[in-house]
Amino acid sequence: MGDVVYIPVDAESGEPYLWGSSEEPCITVFGDFWRCRRSVETKGKAIRAVALEDLPELLDGRWSHVAEISYRPGADGYAFSTGKVKEQAAAYVAEMS
Question: Domain total for the chain?
Fold first, then answer.
């Protein structure tokens, strides 16, 4: 993952675009701004740039209802549990310190 990820959000509430079931809502996180901008998930939404180190805080707090993240670094997508994303973000931050 890069230093910043891009997430389609509602322009007014700032809540991420959710998909999947109501029991296990998912969000899509993009590693590339232009891929995010061209995505179907972004239609009618704002794009929020989030520092990778801030993502675990959002997933523990405001977005704690999110069960899974679909990470799209480029042409391919990967599905991660929120726990895996937090682990990777913590490892990245530790490596950069």
Answer: 1
